[in-house]
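Dear Dr. K.,

Following up on our conversation at the group meeting, I've run the structure prediction for Serine hydrolase domain-containing protein from Nocardioides taihuensis. I'm pasting the input sequence below exactly as I used it, so you can double-check it against your construct before we proceed with anything downstream. Let me know if the numbering doesn't match what you have in your notebook.
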Amino acid sequence: MTAETEPDGRPMCVDPRFQTTADRFFDTFRTTAHGGGAAAAYLHGELVLDVWAGWRAKDLRWTHDTVTMCFSTGKGVASTVLHRLADRGLVDYDQPVAAYWPEFAAAGKDRITVRELMSHRAGLHNVRAIAPTREILLDNDAFANALAAGSPDPRRFRGPGYHAVTYGNLVAEVAARVTGKDFTTLLREEVAEPLGVDEFWFHVPLDHRVRIARVFPTVKPGPLPWSTTGRLLSAVPGLRAVAEAGMAAGFDELVRSPEAHDAVMPGWNGVFSAEALAKMYVALANGGVVDAKRYLSADRIRQMAQVQTRDRDYVLGIRPNWRLGYHPAWLRIPEPPLGSIGHYGFGGSGAWADPETGLSFAFVSNRLGNALQPITDGRMSRIGGAAIEAARRAA
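The predicted structure tokens came back this morning:
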């Protein structure tokens, strides 16, 4: 094992087998225009990569304790909370959501199951209709009430429709209903404390907010204001579902606002470190065990990784092969890990596990996308691809 030392004295970790992965990572952050980020990996539960580079703000370097908003990467974290509850018999995937959340039965949703909800088949993708104002987005109870009252899209019977913003709040409400605890408490008790890692936040504690990297650039899909663009795209047949699902009211402003850290929106406002995310996925890569302790049952891991639908997603326009709250790792390599399980986020962050090699990997960055668009880019695919190839060589 080799290590490099940062100016503040915290050593980076680069196992020699993962030197190429580290090289690709460091090549990503050459100037302030590239922002900053971190990557971490565990192989069979052993830390083999923990690196960081670049800038968390124009005049501040990224350090070992920097965290950043990771957007939909948090869906995998929220899903893991619900799977922990299912492992204790508190949730049955094949029970109606309304069995745990009675109000959810409204508008013909009485037969929608937890399994369907977790594989984006509940038909509640349209955040523009469910939460037409940012005030509703920021109010957990109001958002939950709006979701419960919402009418499901009939396209759900033909295939999944990615719940870009609504998914996290749906999962969080089910978890809260079956335990009687708020989701912030559940996140701490079911993820942070068992793993011995603090950096799992949707509602970020005030004393840790100084650690959050500034995301950039401004989220702007074109020359028109966000709200206007959303309305226009909603009228275009081929783009309508994307606008409905992803262009929530005020999202462009909330992305860079401290208000985003006051609310619990597990579909997109998660703040994590790469090391924390990679540590959580250790369990998914190693049969449910992390730090020699049972975190999830082996049977639960098997169920979590099963493909729930191979149909085309009517929001994304592709076949994501949704698992129960996750998708496979999408990597730029000749033989991608088809049995992998994880979740990527808006802008390019993401984390996943590969049970075949025992590898868990995470990449986070405050730089959203590339020079052309903020949605995503190839950083995760390149760096993650190098990591999986290193893990295969080490087998």
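Two things stood out to me. The longest helix spans residues 379-394. The chain has one domain: 68-361.

Best regards,
J.T.
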